[in-house]
Amino acid sequence: MVQQEALQIEREQARSHVPLVSLSDVALTGIYEISKILTAPNRLETTLSSVVNLLSSFMQMRHGVISLLEDDGIPDITVGGGWNEGTDARYRARLPEKAIGQVIATAVPLIAENVASHPAFSAADAQALGASEDTRVSFIGVPIRVASRVIGTLTIDRVWDGRSVFRLDSDVRFLTMVANLIGQTVQLHRVVSRDRERLMAESGRLQKQLSELKPSSVSRERKRVYVDGIIGDSREIRALLDKIMIVAKSHSPVLLRGESGTGKELIAKAIHELSPRQKGPFIKLNCAALPESVLESELFGHEKGAFTGAVGARKGRFELADKGTLFLDEIGEISPAFQAKLLRVLQEQEFERVGGSHTLKVNVRVVAATNRNLEEAVAKNEFRADLYYRISVIPVIVPSLRDRRGDIPLLANEFLDRFNRENGRDLQFNQDAVDVLMGCGFPGNVRELENCVQRTATLAQGSAIVGDDFACRHNECLSALLWRSPADAPQTRRPMDIPLPVMPPVISGEAANSNTASRLPPLTVPVPAPAPAVPVRSAIADEDLNERERLVDAMERAGWVQAKAARLLGLTPRQIGYALKKHDIEIKRF
Fold first, then answer.
1. DSSP code of 275?
2. What angle do CA 255, 256, 262 make, to 5 degrees?
3. Do residues 130 and 159 make contact, with C-beta atoms less than 8 angstroms apart?
């Protein structure tokens, strides 16, 4: 039979002058393509469905089904081509129960040239497969095995039209190879799943033990959590505090990720004070506040006469932080040239002072912080990949205030209590004021919230702070103009589910008419009526206004850090300082 089929194929191809295609080449190509699908990091059901879809490209078939069993023999997963959630039952209905049971019991492939006359198929099975007097349906089922144990089946069916020639022996060998690959993939998925469940159970057990501990550095009073000035009782802040207690015990570098104003310096100080280095010094440096030449001297120190003004030798921050912790804030802002110098110190814990030749050895734990997307900076070659991996040994995400809105009343009351003590007042928030705070986007996070409370408390006239006391109620708050309040979102979503955009820059001048301006979020408060027309100003006045707007725009984009804004405008920190004074621009401190 097999020889007759092969001869018939050769005759047909010779008759049509089509060169013979090696069946082994087709099978090898199919195995190669299927192996790529099986090694992709997808959900198991999606992977198996893709395999069935690809099978139809390499062999004649109508339907294909992969069925997997649990360890106790109960069906676990049943997928076919075009699988999606909830369709397992539809594919399972195509499986002939007796035939599948025979494949699983014997671990031997089953071939039925005509399911209507095969003893392993009942009349109901033949009907489910679409067989009838006019339609002849063939069936192939092969076992999916792991070692000697059958864990499932791979089956196909197809309709014979009286003209097609099926290579049953080649098809069975091909499907058996595919089934073996599937078996190894399923085994790997199950091992990973069991390990994940074990690790999650272990993590839950450790978290429970950790929650039962009451370290002396953490106290809870009126549902507030205090760790070196960190205030909050939300799930996010509790998870952060639990993590830093664990992280603090090691000596590994830590990278704090989070927006400006979230309290990364407080987290770094907490890590130091909870660590074995707590008796050592805690030294901090803002990398964005200094130009590169000064930054090198600040970090590594300098010898006498190393440069003009170096009248004596001076220790750098690394020396001062020996046997302690060095906090490098805004590390993402250092230049690529200086990144190479910093990398050597982090790797070897040794360096030379500027102008010196003597190598100094230190023992310093580095805690870095940034609000930049360092992964994107690495992809753009703006940040060294080796330095990224060196500082990001233990990444810690500091949540924004928007992600822990439940802590806003606690923080606001703490800041108001502090204001009352310093100013001899006895102010309180009423419910309307709390609602205003809960609806704010706070792009400046905790720092902005503190400033908002202090400004509002200073200007409040009554014995309590009410909603109308806030600047956003009078169109005087920049955040209110640029951020969308949760109250303005569609009612079908909860306020906590609304993704808030990154703080956009102030758009002014010609840029106000660009596409960028059209992407600004909707205003939170009504836009005031246009002001009456004013006399046309002189060219000099317009030039000053444009320069002032450029300064404000750069400062907004730099988070009101003068050194960063200077780099954006191509100025020195001194020049931008003069320009800010010239235009009487008040520096915002979040």
1. S
2. 170
3. yes
